[in-house]
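#struct-pred
JK: can someone run the complex with fe (iii) ion? inputs below
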Amino acid sequence: MRPFSDYHMHTPLCGHAVGEPEEYVRQAIKVGLKEIGFSDHAPLLSYDDPSITMSRTQLPQYHKMIEDVRKKYPQIRILTGIEADFLPGYEKETKELLAGYPYDYVIGSVHFIKSWAFDNPDHREEWMKKDVNRVYRDYYEVLRQSAASGLFTVLAHVDLVKKFGNMPTEDFSAEVAKTAKVFKSAGVLIEINTSGLRKPVKEIFPSLANLKVYQKAGVPITFGSDAHDPQDVGRDFDKGAAWAKEAGYKEYVLLRNRKIDRSVKL
Ligand code: ZN
Ligand code: FE
Ligand code: FE
Ligand code: ZN
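RT: done, structure tokens with the ligand placed:
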């Protein structure tokens, strides 16, 4: 069955998404979803960039927007999530920021290796100067730290490093297995993020080979379109479900209050 929950979608507050929350909700209803969650980019703590995340002063507005659509559309369940960057050295501030409101889940994202926003199209040319294998090693290291930080419920797009199609020449399977173990013992989940199909790499995050490793390690999954445009809500969830099944998953999970609420058969 096609998953009925989409836990990853944005709002215009992050400065690089279009459409009002109401349009995301209407699209969700239209494509038959029963449960969605907003997960816009939480204020970045290392510096301010209105084209990457909302600012601290916009947080109340973010929560009000979700509250409003929840009241207006009782026919669909609308959860409160947020996507927060993992920034080594800012763990305490991140924890405080995330304690400011009750969340159904917090999606943790690694978008930075040191201060390089490696998936930002504006900084893509940096890749030319890098050793791709080294970038992948660094990425997985930060990803494990993000899981172990205890800040997050779900980790987003867990091979985002492939976004522009830069592929390593070394075999990373041992690195991924090590990462899966850390996820499992930290109790974090991962998402099947279909936005990869809309990026240069044209592949779901994570890859099928990686997903098999997470499945073997017993790491549960959620589904997310990572929509930055209402038309992408629930997009390619049929492919996402097939991907998960092929990796051996039999179910995905629903979340409440930063915990697994229940599992749903795939
Ligand atoms: Zn974004
Ligand atoms: Fe992200
Ligand atoms: Fe996102
Ligand atoms: Zn994302």
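RT: quick notes.
The chain has one domain: 5-265.
The pocket of fe (iii) ion (ligand 3) is lined by residues 8, 10, 83, 226 (CB under 6 Å).
JK: thanks, will look after standup
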